[in-house]
Specification:
Number of helices: 13
Strand content: under 5%
Distance between the termini: 125 Å
Shape: elongated
Strand order of the largest sheet: 1-2
Order of helices and strands: HHHHHHHHHHHEEHH
Oligomer: single chain
Structural class: mainly alpha
Largest sheet: 2 strands, antiparallel
Length: about 300
């Protein structure tokens, strides 16, 4: 039980301690506490609801093989997805923590003290880690907005002050990790449930530009609907993309020269194949030629023997 308590403190934001106290007294077992908390989720303010549900999602995702955790994960995920602004809330948390981080680092540079950067790293780790399990158009839009965010690359000077400074990496990497989990991509090659599957920000930047240009759509894991960044893709959009794809494939085929199979002569591409009658006529002509050659040869030999 002590281990669970320590683990939950690690996944619960600092400002969520108040609800954690309520959670801790809401039941005798881990399952009772979470189920009772989820049952009464509407009693909490909206922002606190998102924090509670996000913590439940992250806790449930830690061990998806456990039926108890899977139940908590599914309930929390579905409830959180129904709250409008669920992903925008995490984007706001990231930006607020970053602003505080900048101020704290300025103070820290003067006094050589303070550790607010740890709070920033923890908050964005929680935020991107939660959004990676929220398959919605809103989540995709928020993650795409961070694909070019490399503001927090650790410099040698920062590492010299503290080797753990911004250990989480850039927000672009966090966004790429979330999209790698949420978006169905052909490069998964059957690894739909592989939590280690990851495509870097550069790949997702190209993908995002193609979606914005209207040359491709996307699907969320577990959802057969085709989307663009405005919502479900229209029939006209899908037809236009399909026509473009067919046209490009046709141009590729026309530009590709035919390649003969190894050990085989190139086959004729025009004209009809020879008929059986043609083969028969050829055989007769060949036999007649052989017969005529033999006859002429005999005549010549006979004349030579007669002395002509």
């Amino acid at each position: 039980m002590r281990f669970i308590y320590i683990f939950l403190l690690a996944v619960i934001p600092a400002h969520g301690v108040d609800w954690f106290s309520k959670w801790d007294h809401s039941g005798a077992t881990w399952e009772e506490k979470w189920n009772n908390t989820l049952d009464s989720i509407e009693m909490f303010p909206r922002d606190e609801q998102i924090d509670i549900l996000g913590s439940a999602v992250r806790v449930g995702a830690e061990n998806p093989q456990s039926s108890n955790r899977k139940e908590v994960f599914t309930r929390a995920q579905q409830t959180l997805l129904q709250i409008q602004g669920h992903a925008e809330y995490y984007a706001k948390k990231i930006e607020t923590a970053r602003d505080e981080d900048v101020v704290e680092n300025a103070r820290r540079a003067k006094s050589d003290s303070g550790d607010n950067w740890q709070n920033y790293d923890q908050i964005r780790k929680e935020s991107f880690g939660t959004m990676a399990y929220l398959p919605s158009l809103e989540t995709v839009q928020v993650l795409v907005s961070y694909l070019n965010d490399v503001r927090d690359v650790t410099t040698p000077e920062q590492r010299a002050v503290n080797p753990h400074y911004h250990v989480y990496g850039t927000n672009a990497q966090g966004a790429a990790a979330g999209l790698s989990r949420l978006i169905v991509d052909f490069r998964r090659q059957g690894r739909e449930d592989d939590s280690t599957f990851y495509l870097p920000p550069e790949v997702w930047q190209v993908w995002a530009e193609q979606v914005k240009a209207g040359t491709r759509t996307f699907r969320l894991k577990g959802d057969p609907q085709d989307y663009d960044f405005n919502g479900p893709a229209s029939k006209e959009t899908l037809q236009r993309i399909e026509r473009r794809r067919s046209r490009e494939e046709g141009e590729t085929v026309r530009r590709t020269p035919p390649v003969a199979s190894a050990g085989k002569a190139p086959q004729p591409t025009e004209g009809k194949p020879p008929s059986k009658f043609g083969h028969f006529a050829g055989c007769i002509a060949l036999a007649a030629a052989v017969w005529w050659f033999i006859r002429i040869r005999r005549v010549i030999r006979r004349r030579g023997m007669d002395g002509e």
